Amino acid sequence: MPDERPASAGTHAMTSAQASSRIVVRPGYSQMDWLRRTKRERVDGGDADAKPLDASRVISLEELATHATVNDCWIGLRGKVYNLTAYVEYHPGGAAVLEEAFGKDATALFDKYHKYVNGEYIMRATRVGVMPGYVGDSDSD
Ligand code: HEM
User: Cytochrome b5 heme-binding domain: which residues (predicted)?
Assistant: First the structure.
């Protein structure tokens, strides 16, 4: 016999957790784990004992596009370029969704999914340069 109750009566309405496309990250890969790791380890892709990268180096769109695989992925975000490679496993939205953004200016996609996320802060240790025409702050964040 068909169930004619209204969708919400007696059953659980879909929770926001179910509606979300957040993935369950592996133990040790929470955002807290990421922030802790970036404090003690180099995550911009540079050699452990080499000098820090020049965070204001201008990276052309052509160069950005050469870093578009899961093992070597850079993205542009609000004029800055970040090496996402180490972060992929920590991304609460999963790795697959990020692929579309690899090697590109990902600002529009980023804002589409989570404008409220402070990407600049989360990614600050992975900065490798800036996009052409960037005229923002010249500090080290
Ligand atoms: C700088 C790079 C990025 C960082 C630091 C980042 C960070 C985050 C964080 C912290 C969350 C959890 C949000 C929450 O708790 O509500 C999240 C979720 C998510 N992210 Fe990202 N993200 C980045 C790039 C992207 C890009 C480029 C895309 C799309 C192509 C994307 C798609 C998503 C999706 C689909 C979710 C799940 C949202 C949901 O709850 O439904 N992210 N990301």
Answer: 56-132
The answer to whether residue 78 sits within a structural domain is yes
Residue numbers of the domain that contains 90: 44-130
Per the CB < 8 A criterion, the answer to whether 86 and 128 are in contact is no
Which tens digit of pLDDT belongs to each residue from 2-60?
A: 555 544 443 444 455 556 789 888 999 999 999 999 999 999 999 988 998 999 999 99
56-89 confidence digits (pLDDT tens): 999 999 999 999 999 999 999 999 999 999 999 9
Mutation to probe ligand 1, out of 99, 113, 116 (largest number of atoms < 8 A from CB): 113
Q: How far is the CA of 114 from the centre of ligand 1 (A)?
A: 6
Helices (H), 20-81: 31-40, 61-65
ipTM summary value = 0.96
Tokens, residue 65: 């596009």
